[in-house]
Each structure stands twice: as structure tokens, then as C-alpha cells.
Amino acid sequence: MSRIGFVKAHACGNDFLILEEGAVAKKHAALARRLCHRNTGIGADGIEFVERRADGSFFLRLFNADGSEAELSGNGTRCVAAWLAASEGIEDVALGTHGGVRRCRVVGRDGAAWTVESGMGVPRVMQRTIEVEGIASPIEGAMVNVGNPHFVIFTGEDFTIHGMAWQELGAKIAVHPLFRYGTNVEFVHVAAEDRIAFRIYERGCGPTTSSGTGTCASAAAAMTLRGAERALVAMAEGGSQRVVWPDAAAEMMLTGPAEIICTGEVDVD
Fold it and tell me: What is the tens place of the pLDDT at every residue in 43-65?
């Protein structure tokens, strides 16, 4: 039995544990399942394992609450950036992920809450219609890659499709055979030219209150396919984030909050 330190942070309610890579014995999946459990663990949507490399750079590995590994999390990356700012005074940092390098810059602070602007790469959007078991009509949407996979569906204000709740449909699409490694699913209502509202079903953890990459995927699809403005506010259940994407060849910029909740220690095998 050993004791390791952890940080817990959230971005619009999308919560993560942050652990130093050197403190764990390569049991990432098992640790994620145990520590993220809402009743018997600390509770979180995922764990960001932070590796400090010899050249002074940082690399993040993200494991979801079910133990699966994902390419990256926009909100999780921002939580790590907030932690580095709070603990080490680093307010401009490049964070490596399996989905690419994400540069994060602190642009504001209010107590334990940090406002961080992140470069999110160049989204790729492709319209796609899929067949879903149990639904008579095809589902029209868009496959969007922002370093990880998303399927975006446009809906009305209630986020239902063919009378089905978004949570139920999201669970089906997340494991659809079309997506070899699963996909995140967003249900998007274009409320105005400069404002969208959306709901997220994340692979590996289910419905979440927010998602950084989900925000970017939703915005990219709305801008590309629904004529939304290239600078807009995206509203999820946990709060709003701002997205700026000047054109299809430019990097998308995401700005939103991240807050340190607590720090502590936990015993692990």
C-alpha cells in the first residue's frame, strides 16, 4: 500500500483528478475506475496523469471513469493548466496529449477559478447520416475531429430526436459500429447566430455537464453547417465557454473557466 497525492479540479462541472505520472505504478485504468467512482472513490469524470519530461515539457494521459484511455480532454487540459498556474506560477504552457499539443494561457483569475484560453487545433467536419437500431429514420449529423472523435446532431430546444431523450440516443451512438473506438456525442441547438446550447454524452463516462472538445466540435459543426458566427458562446449544463474560429484553416481557440476544488492524498495498492 502506498499513498499518493491528488488534485481535484473542474471546468463547468466536468471534474477531473490530476495525478503525477511518477507517483503511480502504471496502473492507470484500474486507478481511474477506483478513484473516479462517485460512491466508493473520490469521484470524477476522469484522471489526467501528468508526466514531467526531461526537457521540461509536460505530457498528459487521460483515462475516463470506466478505465478507457482517450486522446485528450479540452476541459481536463484546462484543469491541468489551472493547477500549474496555481501551484507553480506557470501561466502559459504547452501540454502534450495523444490528440496533439494544446497551448494554454491564463487570461484571468477569481480566487480558485482561472480563466484559460486554449489552442484546440484545426477541427475537421464531415456530414454523415447513420442508422441507429430501434429508430426508423436515419440520424443526420456530422463527424467532427478535434483531436478526438465526436458526432454532432442538431436538435430543437429540448434536445430530443424522434421522441428519444438525448441521453438514451447518446448511449447508442457512442458505441455505434461506425466508430471503431467509440465517439463522443453532442446534441446542439443553434439559439442565435452567435450562441449555441448543447448536451454531451461522453464515451467512457456518459452524460457530463460540460466538455471542452465537445464545445469545440459543436461550435465547428454549427459554424460549418448552420452558418453560425465564427466567434460564439457555447452553453452547456455546467456553464458557458467562448469559441473563436476565424476560418476553416485556422486553429480554434477555446476560453473558459477551471477551478481547483481540493488537494489530498489517497492510499493505493
Answer: 999 999 999 999 999 999 999 99
Q: How do 113-119 and 69-70 pair as beta strands? A: unpaired
Give bridge partners of residue 94 from the DSSP assignment. Answer: 103
- As a whole number of angstroms, the distance between CA 123 and CA 87 comes to 32
Residue 234, CA distances (Å) to 20, 83, 210, 222 in order: 31, 24, 10, 10
- In words, the CATH class of domain 2-118+257-268 is alpha beta
* Predicted structure pTM score: 0.96
Residue 169, φ and ψ in degrees, nearest 5: -70, -40
How far is Cα 67 from Cα 84, in angstroms, rounded to an integer? 25
DSSP, res 175? T
DSSP 196-242: EEEEEEETTTEEES--HHHHHHHHHHHHHHS---SEEEEEETTEEEE
Instruction: Give me 218's grid cell.
Output: 459543436
| Fold agreement between 2-118+257-268 and 124-250 | yes
Cβ atoms of residues 255 and 239 within 8 Å? no
Q: Is the predicted pLDDT of residue 31 greater than 80, yes or no?
A: yes
Q: Where are the domains of the chain?
A: 2-118+257-268, 124-250
Q: Tell the CATH topology of 124-250.
A: Diaminopimelate Epimerase; Chain A, domain 1 (3.10.310)
